[in-house]
Structure formats: C-alpha cells, structure tokens
C-alpha cells in the first residue's frame, strides 16, 4: 500500500512513518516543517519506499502517486505551538482538512483524522466518553486548536454523509515518547528536559489537575487498528490511557527516575481554560477495535528519558 501521512515529520507522524516502512509499505510524508522536525525523517531518507514532500496543507496538494490511505496529523499540537499563530492553527485544521478530504476523494481512499481530547474542553463529565459534547470556550486562547479540531470533525462527517467519503476519526489524549520536540511545551517533555538540565520543574496551578499519559507505541497500534477495522467503524473514538495522574505526581515521578537531578518543583499561575481533569473512557475502542494501551507510565517514561538524555548530550 501507499500511505500518505500529513505532519509526518512530527512526533506522532514520524512514528507512523516508521511503522509502515518497517512493514514494507510506501510512505509519502507531507510536512511544512513549521513544527515538524526534519531530523525525525533522517532515518528514512535512504529507504526507497519513503518520499518527503515539504508542503503546507492549507494549500491544495497534488500527489502523482496513487494513495491508498491518508492519515491527517498535520497541526500544531502543544499550547505554545498552536497559540504562536492561532490563525495558522485554525486554517490548518479547517482548510487543511478540506484539502486532504478532497485528496482522499480524488484517490478514492480512506482518510483518518487525528482529532484530540481538547474537543472536550475543560470537561464537566469524567471520564470523557465520545457522547460528551464538551465544555469549550469558543473565544479563549486555546480555541484556535479546540474549535479548529471540532470543526475538522464536522467537515469529516459532512463529507461522509454528503459524499460517501470513507473516514475515520480518532480523539487522541496526551501522548508522549521518543521523537517529541524538546521545546514543544508539553508537560512530559518540559519536565524531563528541565530535570536533565537541573532547572526547576514548572507546575501550573496547584498541580492537582489530572492527565492520562499514553505511550506512543500504544497510540500507533490504535491508529492502525482504527484505519484498518473491518466493520467500517468511523468513530469518533477515544485513544488514550485511562490511568490518571495529577501533574504534580508526574513531576515527582520524573524526578525519581532522574535521581541525579538537582531540580525542584516550583508553581506558577494556571493558564486560561487549562482543563482540570482529563481521562478517556475507552470502552468504545475496546468494543470496536479490541484495543487498549499496554505500556505503564513508568516504563514509558524510562524510554522517553533515555531518548532525551541522548539528544541533550548532542
């Protein structure tokens, strides 16, 4: 098969490219490198099955190759990244989705949209099932991402209803692992880099807000299972690890795993609209896909810390 991955030089995208290349499929990686990292694709460049296309999906895309499947992962995903240029973020979600759906129609192929747990906003229902419609501030500093992803889901399901497009929609919860950008501002990479550099670990608010942390290998297995499910299940479906930890517990765990660190935990004000709780209800993924995460937090953090040790030494 020929697989097209938008955002393929990013954290999740590069893992997905690696997965399919190891299965001897052709991979077309599309990325404008605004947040993706060229070094993530370096291991693939000598592989004849790999093709890199530098392109911004806000603009229409023509690919000479016949595409069999599209994974639409392109979008700034961490708060510092997506708030840096909120109009660009919104355009990527909305116009980018439209362009990729048109490419899917042209190729008569299936397309998967990487949506997000942020569609639930600061939830009033816990844990969050797919039936929950969310509590999102439409004019806040996070709305370019939250509402952009919600609008993308709308477009995907309208294409399915109106045009019969073969779609899949996955709501991804906090994911971490090797190939994360050390400067992307996500909580796991922030804490690990701060601890390795002996900088203070920055906890926002009282640190009691909760998150569920999913290791990248589990997510890749879930994305592939969703794309290739035989029941034509379109979603949306949650993908995350239901093990719930406070941000403070995460900081403490990382300091335990980096015992040489001289870092301390410091507190700063909680940013606007930062969710107080985040935990996926994954019963639907278990039922429809037979999928659930396997990697426990400590095991995944050890692998992630090893990766960041190597790149910080470089």
Description:
The protein is of the alpha/beta class and 314 residues long. The protein has a domain at 2-175 and 214-240 and 279-293: Rossmann fold, CATH 3.40.50.720. It is 38% helix and 17% strand. The protein has helices at 11-22, 79-84, 86-107, 143-163, 187-196, 216-227, 247-257, 283-289, 297-313, and strands at 2-6, 26-31, 50-54, 69-72, 110-116, 167-172, 175-176, 201-204, 210-212, 214-215, 237-239, 244-246, 265-268. The strands form 4 sheets. The chain has a 7-stranded parallel β-sheet, sandwiched between helices. Strands 7-10 form a two-stranded parallel sheet. The protein has a two-stranded parallel sheet with strand order 8-13. Strand 5 (110-116), helix 4 and strand 6 form a beta-alpha-beta unit. The mean pLDDT is 94.
Task: Produce the secondary structure layout.
Layout: E1 2-6, H1 11-22, E2 26-31, E3 50-54, E4 69-72, H2 79-84, H3 86-107, E5 110-116, H4 143-163, E6 167-172, E7 175-176, H5 187-196, E8 201-204, E9 210-212, E10 214-215, H6 216-227, E11 237-239, E12 244-246, H7 247-257, E13 265-268, H8 283-289, H9 297-313
Parallel strand pairs: 1-2, 1-4, 2-3, 4-5, 5-6, 6-11, 7-10, 8-13
Antiparallel strand pairs: 9-12
Helix pairs in contact: 1-6, 3-4, 5-7, 5-9
């Amino acid at each position: 098969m020929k697989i097209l991955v938008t955002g393929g030089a990013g954290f999740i995208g590069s893992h997905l490219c690696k997965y399919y290349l190891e299965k001897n499929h052709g991979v077309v990686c599309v990325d404008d490198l605004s947040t993706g990292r060229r070094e993530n694709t370096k291991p693939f460049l000598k592989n004849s099955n790999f093709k890199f296309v530098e392109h911004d999906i806000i603009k229409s895309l023509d690919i000479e190759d016949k595409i069999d499947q599209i994974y639409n992962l392109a979008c700034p995903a961490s708060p510092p990244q997506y708030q840096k240029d909120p109009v660009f973020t919104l355009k990527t979600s909305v116009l980018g989705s439209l362009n990729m759906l048109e490419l899917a129609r042209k190729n008569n192929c299936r397309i998967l949209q990487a949506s997000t747990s942020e569609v639930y906003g600061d939830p009033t229902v816990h844990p969050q099932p797919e039936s929950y419609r969310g509590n999102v501030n439409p004019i806040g500093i996070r709305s370019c991402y939250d509402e952009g992803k919600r609008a993308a889901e709308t477009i995907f399901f309208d294409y399915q209803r109106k045009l019969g497009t073969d779609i899949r929609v996955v709501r991804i919860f906090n994911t971490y692992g090797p190939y994360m950008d050390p400067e992307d501002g996500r909580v796991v990479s922030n804490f690990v880099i701060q601890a390795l550099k002996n900088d203070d670990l920055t906890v926002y608010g009282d640190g009691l807000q909760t998150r569920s942390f999913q290791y990248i290998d589990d997510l890749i297995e879930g994305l592939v299972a969703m794309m290739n499910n035989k029941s034509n299940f379109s979603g949306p479906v949650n993908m995350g690890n239901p093990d719930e930890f406070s941000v403070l517990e995460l900081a403490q765990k990382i300091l335990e795993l980096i015992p040489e660190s001289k870092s301390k935990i410091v507190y700063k004000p909680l940013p606007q609209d930062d969710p107080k709780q985040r935990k996926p209800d994954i019963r639907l993924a278990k039922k429809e896909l037979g999928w659930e995460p396997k990697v426990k937090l400590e095991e995944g953090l050890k692998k992630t810390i090893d990766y960041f040790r190597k790149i910080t030494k470089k």
